[in-house]
Amino acid sequence: MVSTLSNLIRGHEMKRRFFLPAILLLAALLTGCGAKSYSIKTHSGHEYIAQGAPVYDVKSDTYTFTDGQGKEVVINKDDIRLIKEK
Fold first, then answer.
1. Which end of the chain has the least Cβ crowding within 10 Å, N or C?
2. How does the average pLDDT of the chain come out, rounded?
3. Pick from 41, 45, 31, 43: which is nearest to 85 by CA?
4. Signal sequence span per UniProt (predicted)?
């Protein structure tokens, strides 16, 4: 009886020891998949890294995005040479 209880306790500790790291790894992978960044290159040679997809405004013919420093950037569509997902 004592050895059965001891095995049961050890088995529970093993499950808990592997369960938490597995959950943390899964959370990290899912978080990484959701955070996309975009490289935006202008005709003048400047490159921005956008956190998330740039949003196009038809009325003003501009793209708006948040750069790596957290600042909102607005660029005229004609000034952009390339937008590429990283």
1. N
2. 79
3. 41
4. none
pLDDT of residue 68: 87
Structure tokens at 25: 């790894």
pLDDT for 58 beyond 50: yes
| pLDDT band at residue 19 under the 50/70/90 scheme | low
Q: How far, CA to CA in Å, does 45 sit from each of 1, 4, 48, 68, 81? A: 75, 70, 10, 17, 9
CATH topology of domain 36-85: SH3 type barrels. (2.30.30)
Angle 86-52-76 (CA atoms, 0-180°, nearest 5)? 95
Per the listing, tokens 């390339």 go with 82
Q: Under the phi-then-psi rule, with left for phi > 0, alpha for psi from -120 to 50, and beta for the rest, what region is 11?
A: alpha
| E strand or H helix that includes residue 73 | strand 72-76
Sequence ranges of the domains in the chain? 1-35, 36-85
